[in-house]
Amino acid sequence: MDIRWLLSFKMTGWFCGGVIAVLAVLSILSWSLIFQKMAAFRRARRANSRFRLMSDTEISEKYAGFFVHSCLYLISWKVNQFPVIDGSNIVKLEEELKIELNEYFEKLSSGLPILGSITSVAPFVGLLGTVWGIMVIFARLHGQVAGVSEMVAPGVAQALIATVAGLITAIPALFFYNYFTMILRSLSSEADTYASRLISRK
């Protein structure tokens, strides 16, 4: 290995290395959340798809465990607790449905705020590491004689790695955050439509 690259780590200081380590931790956390949310949304969409294939006569309490991830089953179960829906209890039903769905979607979306924060923070953390590293390099080279310029390029490149690491961390997090948000809105819209249709049929 070129000794200049080893020296460049020393030139950029421990702060730049610490920034890269922080970004590595954020990247691991980001991908962990991504895989967890992918599995959770896949279960929810699959449960809804299977629920839609069943007729009303096939839906019963024995399927509660099978459709535990389906917001549509949750709505059906809650509505069926009201044999007759009229002006006296429709407000109560709507309030209970709102509470149940809020809890359902809050649980389903858990972790997304963290993912969103990573998309915002990671690029700036990387940029901070780069700026700090370059400042340290030029501060240490100040007043040095000619001939040390060959050490600048590896040092600057090492500092720029922090920016690259920040972008590598943020871009996948941003993509999947938007993707999961889109799925969440789709599921919420589907739940609202199904609830309105089910209540109107009572």
3D structure, described in words:
α1 packs parallel to α5 (152-201), α2 runs antiparallel to α3 and α2 packs parallel to α5. The termini are far apart. This protein has one domain (3-201). The protein has helices spanning 3-52, 71-79, 90-108, 112-141, 152-201. The relative contact order is 0.18. 78% of the residues lie in helices and 0% in strands. The model has no long low-confidence stretch (mean pLDDT 81).
Kindly summarize this structure in a few lines:
Helices cover 78% and strands 0% of the residues. With 202 residues, it is an all-alpha fold.
Which regions are unreliable across 5 or more consecutive residues at pLDDT < 50?
none
Structural class category: mainly alpha
Strand content: under 5%
Q: What count of structural domains?
A: 1
Q: Please give the count of helices.
A: 5
DSSP summary, beta strand count: 0
Order of helices and strands: HHHHH
Main pleated-sheet profile: none
State the share of residues found in helices, binned by percent: over 70%
Distance between the termini: 75 Å
Mean pLDDT: 81
Q: What shape does the CA trace take?
A: rod-shaped
Integer-rounded radius of gyration: 27 Å
Task: Fill in the keyword field for this structure.
202 residues, mainly alpha, 5 helices
Any chance you could write out the topology, listing elements then pairs?
Elements: H1 3-52, H2 71-79, H3 90-108, H4 112-141, H5 152-201
Helix pairs in contact: 1-4, 1-5, 2-3, 2-5, 3-5, 4-5
